[in-house]
Design goal:
alpha+beta; 2 domains; seven-stranded mixed β-sheet; two-stranded antiparallel ribbon; 34% helix
Length: 349
């Protein structure tokens, strides 16, 4: 058994080294020198010969981004089950199989994606009394919502939520808003979003899972109409039929494309409130990838990292998992410190 553990530990360390080299993708913009240093040091290309799968596939559009002043990014996720983990706050959720695009801003989309997922993590101290955030929050509204959720109430409507869809989910002792948005701001806007909003002691989280509006409209045209006066020849909601559309969603009788989005978003929502369980056949040792993703819009970098863990890791295997996880966190923190040092150097010069 000890020999097996030593061999397995060697193998996992090999995978981890490859994962850190191949799957850490950094984008730093605003300074060409920093972008060149960071991307040259950390953006080794991932090939089919890489010993561990990168969490980003078909990522050519964003793998080597142009240096610019934009804070947002978008990229593809693998066609495989992926776990998003925020180690700082200790929560995770499941991204089920499908063609999903990971984006720092749900308004920033790449073409050809069936779904997009955006995760917005905002420090509570960033909310101001005299400013409205991108997602419609003042500090007062944020605090009102946070207080309501702490007692299990939905609280104020800060977004264009569809009222029948408004729900509160228990996520391991705290609560999250869960609702659907079919449009924002004006009658011409049609969208299909599942939105989850929740809080930790230090952050507000907004998760948005969006389906392709054009595909769903084409699949269910009976619920839409033309409003030539306001919207030209584009298909917009027939609001008298919106409740019927929603009923089809929750009853599972909507079109294939609509149900695919709805079921995928429901899987993400449910995984927030339940531990992830994985079945391992007795006698097998299965090594699985775990994925870490983080976006810092202030310092303008993104981290995507995969690392190996043993499924059903108990006893000696648990200690190996812990050792690898601690090494991953150490490398992430070292990278963040390198970014701080680079930014400080640029400020001085």
């Amino acid at each position: 058994m000890n020999i097996l553990i030593k061999k397995l530990k060697y193998f996992l360390n090999f995978l981890l080294a490859a994962a850190i080299i191949c799957a850490l993708i950094i984008t730093i913009s605003g300074c060409a020198a920093i972008a060149k240093i960071a991307s040259g040091a950390a953006q080794s290309p991932v090939t089919s010969e890489s010993p561990v799968a990168s969490p980003i596939t078909e990522y050519e559009a964003a793998k080597t981004p142009e240096v610019n002043d934009k804070e947002d990014y978008a990229g593809g996720l693998p066609n495989d089950n992926v776990y998003y983990q925020d180690y700082e706050e200790g929560f995770s959720f499941l991204l089920p199989e499908g063609k999903i695009e990971f984006s720092s801003n749900h308004w920033l989309l790449l073409s050809g994606s069936e779904f997009s997922l955006s995760i917005v993590k905002t420090p509570l101290e960033d909310f101001k009394d005299d400013e409205i955030s991108v997602y419609g929050y003042t500090r007062e509204l944020m605090l009102e919502e946070k207080t309501a959720l702490e007692s299990g109430s939905f609280g104020p409507a800060a977004d264009f939520s569809y009222p029948p869809s408004e729900n509160v989910k228990n996520i391991n002792g705290s609560y999250a808003k869960d609702y659907i948005v079919f449009g924002r701001y004006e009658v011409c806007d049609v969208r299909f979003e599942r939105v989850l909003v929740f809080y930790s002691e230090s952050y507000q989280y907004i998760i948005i899972i969006e389906g392709d509006a054009d595909l769903i409209k084409q699949d269910m045209p009976q619920y839409f109409k033309q409003d030539n006066r306001n919207c030209g020849d584009m298909l917009v909601w027939d609001f008298e039929k919106q409740q019927q559309f929603y009923d089809e969603l929750i009853n599972g009788t909507a079109s294939e494309k609509a149900m695919k989005w709805y079921n995928l978003s429901a899987t993400v929502a449910e995984s927030l409130s339940a531990p992830i369980t994985e079945t391992v056949v007795d006698g097998q040792i299965i090594v699985s990838n775990r994925y870490y993703m983080e976006n810092d819009t202030e310092k303008n970098y993104s981290i995507y990292l995969s690392y190996p863990q043993i499924l059903d890791g108990r006893g000696s295997f648990e200690s190996i998992n812990t050792e690898i996880y601690e090494l991953v966190i150490s490398d992430i923190n070292a990278f963040k410190q390198d970014v701080e040092d680079l930014l400080a150097f640029v400020d001085i010069t």
